[in-house]
Structure formats: C-alpha cells, structure tokens
Target: Helix-turn-helix domain-containing protein
Amino acid sequence: MAEESCHRVAPVHTHPEQVPVRTALAALADPVRLLIVRELAGSPDWTRACGSFRVPVRKAALSHHFQVLRSAGLVEQRDEGAKRLNRLRREEFEARFPGLLDLVLREDD
Model:
C-alpha cells in the first residue's frame, strides 16, 4: 500500500462540465485509476486519504493517477492536517456523462 501521498501543493480541480469524453474515458481506462474510483465509490465522501488505497504503485505514480482523475473531473481533494482526503464527484460526473460511471463501476466486466 502506498504511503500518504499527493499532498502539499494545492490540487487543481477540473469541473466535469469542462471535460471532453475522451479525457474521461482515458482516465477510467487505466486499471489503477479504475481501482481508485471503485474504492472511492464504496466509501463516504472525504473519508479516504491518498495513502489508504491498495494500489500497486509508489507515491509519485499515485500522485500522477490522482492528478489525472482530478483533470477528468472524477475526483475532488482537500487537505486536512497532514492528509489529503478524496471524494468521488459522482453527481457532477453523472450530470456530464449519464450512465458512464455506473457502467465502469460494474464488477462483472
């Protein structure tokens, strides 16, 4: 599991309304990012710190994956003390891409 990561520089967030469909699809096509999104989908908002995800990558790579997810409008982050907490922007993303998130979150695929 990665140590606490992806914090100190304030994150830049892209609203899903500004995201092209190709950007959203590319973000969700990566297995590590899909794992992060799936774990966030099963967690209450703002309860998952960056280092709490069970992903097979180091801190620098994890930071990159979170940056891609923010740029695709999928994840929002905020700092709380020494931790950076995350939430899935489910409602906003669903408004922009109806049904896409539900489709990729299905476990049977």
Notes: The radius of gyration is 13 Å.
